[in-house]
Write a structure and sequence with these properties.
The complex is a heterodimer of chains A (about 170) and B (about 500). By secondary structure, chain A is mostly beta strands. Helices cover about 5% and strands about 55% of the residues of chain A. Chain A has one helix and 16 strands. Chain A has an eight-stranded antiparallel β-barrel with strand order 1-2-3-4-5-6-7-8. In chain A, strands 9-16-14-11 form a four-stranded antiparallel sheet, with no helix packed on it. In chain A, strand 3 and strand 4 form a beta hairpin. The relative contact order of chain A is 0.14. With about 500 residues, chain B is α+β, with helices and mostly antiparallel strands. Chain B folds into five domains: about 100 residues, Rossmann fold, CATH 3.40.50.20; about 70 residues, 2-Layer Sandwich (Dna Ligase, domain 1), CATH 3.30.1490; about 130 residues, ATP-grasp fold, B domain (D-amino Acid Aminotransferase, Chain A, domain 1), CATH 3.30.470; about 130 residues, D-amino Acid Aminotransferase, Chain A, domain 1; about 45 residues, no CATH class. Helices cover about 40% and strands about 25% of the residues of chain B. In chain B, strands 9, 10, 11, 12, 13, 14, 15, 20 and 22 form a nine-stranded antiparallel sheet that branches. In chain B, strands 3-2-1-4-5 form a five-stranded parallel sheet. Chain B has a three-stranded antiparallel sheet with strand order 7-6-8. In chain B, a hairpin with a 2-residue loop joins strand 6 and strand 7. In chain B, helix 4 runs antiparallel to helix 5 and helix 13 packs antiparallel against helix 14. The chains are: A mainly beta (about 170), B alpha+beta (about 500). At the A-B interface, strand 1, strand 2, strand 3, strand 4 and strand 5 of A face strand 17, helix 13, strand 23, helix 14 and helix 17 of B.
């Protein structure tokens, strides 16, 4: 099987087949071949022994996060966003340099209240520049532009209560 | 004594643990979305108090009092947040015949007011940040304020009496900017709080936030503890705390703890409280405010003194005498650091990251304490503060504590949601943090610099990225294969069935 795996915005081609022996796999990452001994730990964990004799031993978990096919890889305390086979999220695209095309909405990630707008219609914005501040879970959260572009529409005003998923600002 | 805990999450679990150790029965309260929360399961009894919205559950005084009555509780521990510093709640508990495990309503009222607390400190002979004692209402002309400003000295801060959260606050570098600052502070405060009165305060340039925990009993004894340093703040919110402070010598500790105890004694303070100070670079310190409750960072004090503050809160409320050795309380043994683990995405400006926790394996081992409030399978709700655990490390020296904290953060596994763990791992590596060269502005400056670069706190080396790709690939392969042989859940149930069959065969 071959997968296109995106980790922290970088895509790698990974092909996998079972090798002779229990739990052994031939794994190729961007052309580099590895012999991997993999064992499931719980529902999401994997214990990996990579490359034979002096095997590197790592525990890595791959768990779904959010509802959009996004995965989070947990590794030594770090949490790395990933996706398999081009289920790329807006975030992965923004992380890759903000080359998303077309109109991109900035949506409320959870119910909250609009505290202030950091941009107006017509403003030029950079990728990941803050555009609107929403208060939720007792904290003010700055939501950022998914791409570099121009503010096409501002759909809310300060003080407004917004539901999860509500479009706040559109970047073109 | 049966204790109702008027709170949720990790602090409710923390209080329940203290009660268990004292063999006291506990009552949890919960809102709609907290039916499956950990504090409900760990208490002996649990009472539903209303909808998920805190204003209609955890903040409703009558609902809590009613829950205490229905469950037969005779004392209430407020934890922190929610009703912990609400004098009306403390009074209502007393009126209902319940012991409130905290200070008296009068003490909460008096020390909860910024100007009231400041006046108490001045009367106790404790330095406050130089500034005006009486506010200037809208009728006071700017030139009269300017004369007072010249006495205080620049730079200074114009603050709204009714202000908070940075609103109605202006920093003034010199006399020429004063009028404009007064105008904007007045107008902001007028529209936000309906009160345009302002006062002036000297601006302390690179302050450290150092605070003194204390306990007071009902027999006139007040005992201060070795200080906590809480200068690692993001937007005025503490995120990492430690004890002792690198900036506090034994001689300074003696002066600060004595000053804190003097303020508390002057208002006949009882139970747990904390006096917060700003510590200037030259070693002078100023009273900032008093928190009339237990604090999130109380474990670092517990770790370096081996004194259980929550158990003492309960004992004091029962009328017991404080018999802690005062010397031991101000003599830190080793070093402790606490990281507040939030369900937030540090790579997205610390945006809350609620959702389903698919797996949880807290750190453990030597010198590690996990004050957790969640468990695997729990959906972190959007309604409340998003702190899911306090991770505390203790070791003989600060360097060893940082090494131990880094080890523990690497061990800590939270699957399915983002947390601030990767940010703490990064912070523990920063040279300024490791060397203790920081003040309250350090973290915001550091994060602002980082933001320009825009890299993730969870950045991987090429080798680690390759290993992560192998893991994601193997995971996808196994799931695709399992599509034929069954999901992980089905495999699990099959294993249980097999185990059951084996049992049946014996």
């Amino acid at each position: 099987m071959t997968f296109e795996i995106d980790i922290n915005g970088r895509t790698r081609a990974v092909s996998i087949e079972r090798a002779a022996g229990s739990g052994l796999f031939h794994v190729t990452v961007d052309g580099r071949a590895h012999l991997v001994d993999a064992t499931r730990i719980g529902d999401y964990g994997l214990s990996l022994l990579v490359d034979g004799e002096a095997a590197v031993s790592r525990e890595i978990s791959v768990a779904p996060a959010g509802g959009r096919g996004e995965l989070l890889i947990a590794m030594d305390g770090r949490a790395v966003p990933a996706s398999v086979n081009a289920r790329r999220t807006g975030r992965a695209i923004a992380d890759a340099g903000g080359h998303a095309h077309g109109d991109q909405p900035v949506v409320a990630p959870m119910p909250g209240r609009v505290v202030r707008l950091l941009v107006a219609v017509g403003d030029e914005v950079a990728a990941r520049q803050g555009v609107v501040v929403v208060e939720a879970m007792k904290m003010e959260n700055e939501l950022r532009s998914p791409k570099a572009g121009r503010i096409k529409e501002v759909a809310v005003t300060p003080g407004m209560s917004v539901e999860s998923g509500r479009v706040l600002v559109i970047v073109e | 004594m049966k204790i109702l805990i008027a709170n949720r999450g990790e602090i409710a679990v923390r209080v329940i643990r203290a009660c268990r150790e004292m063999v006291l029965p506990t009552v949890a309260v919960f809102s709609d979305c907290d039916r499956d929360a950990r504090h409900v399961r760990e208490a002996d009894q649990a009472v539903h108090i209303g909808p998920s919205d805190a204003a209609r559950s955890y903040l409703r005084v009558e609902a809590i009092i009613d829950a205490a009555r229905r469950s037969g509780a005779d004392a209430v521990h407020p934890g922190y947040g929610f009703l912990a510093e609400n004098a009306g709640f403390a009074r209502a508990c007393g009126d209902a015949g319940l012991t409130f495990i905290g200070p008296s309503p009068d003490a909460i009222c008096r020390m909860g007011s910024k100007t009231g607390a400041r006046q108490a400190a001045v009367r106790a002979g404790v330095p406050v940040v130089p500034g005006t004692e009486e506010p200037f209402d809208a009728s006071v002309p700017d030139d009269a304020i300017a004369r007072v400003a010249a006495d205080i000295g620049y730079p200074l801060v114009v603050k709204a009496v009714a202000g908070g959260g940075g609103k109605g606050m202006r920093i003034v570098a010199d006399a020429t900017d004063l009028s404009a600052a007064i105008r904007t502070a007045r107008s902001e405060a007028g529209s936000a709080f309906g009160d345009s009165a302002v006062y002036l305060e000297r601006r302390i340039l690179h302050p450290r936030h150092v605070e003194v925990q204390l306990l007071g009993d009902h027999h006139g004894t007040v005992i201060p503890f070795a200080e906590r340093e809480c200068s690692i703040q993001r937007r005025h919110q503490k995120v990492v705390e430690e004890s002792p402070s690198l900036a506090v010598s034994p001689e300074l500790r003696a002066r600060m703890t004595e000053a804190a105890a003097a303020v508390a004694r002057s208002v006949d303070y009882t139970n747990a409280g904390t006096i917060e100070f700003l510590l200037d670079g030259d070693g002078s310190f100023y009273f900032l405010e008093m928190n009339t409750r237990l604090q999130v960072e109380h474990p670092v004090t517990e770790m370096v003194t081996s004194i259980d503050l929550v158990q003492w809160q309960i004992r004091i409320a029962r009328g017991e005498r404080l018999d802690i050795d005062p010397v031991r309380a101000v003599t830190p043994h080793g070093h402790a650091i606490e990281c507040r683990i939030y369900a937030e995405d540090p790579d997205e400006g610390f945006m809350p990251s609620p959702g389903l926790i698919r797996g949880l394996r807290p750190a453990s081992g030597p010198g590690i304490r996990d004050d957790g409030g969640v468990s695997a399978g729990y959906d972190v709700p959007v309604y409340y503060d998003s702190m899911i655990a306090k991770l505390v490390a203790w070791a003989a020296t600060r360097d060893e504590t940082i090494a131990r904290m880094s080890r523990a953060l690497g061990e800590y596994q939270v699957l399915g949601i983002r947390t601030t763990i990767p940010f703490f791992l990064w912070l523990m590596r920063q040279p300024e943090y490791r060397e203790g060269r920081y003040d309250t502005t350090y973290l915001d400056r550091l994060l602002a610099d980082r933001r320009v670069n825009g890299t993730s706190f969870s950045e991987l080396s090429d080798e680690d990225g390759e290993l992560a790709a192998i893991a994601a690939g193997v995971d996808a392969f196994l799931r695709a294969s399992a599509g034929v042989t069954g999901s992980p859940e089905r495999r699990q149930s099959t294993r249980w069935k097999q185990a059951a069959r084996r049992e049946a065969l014996r």
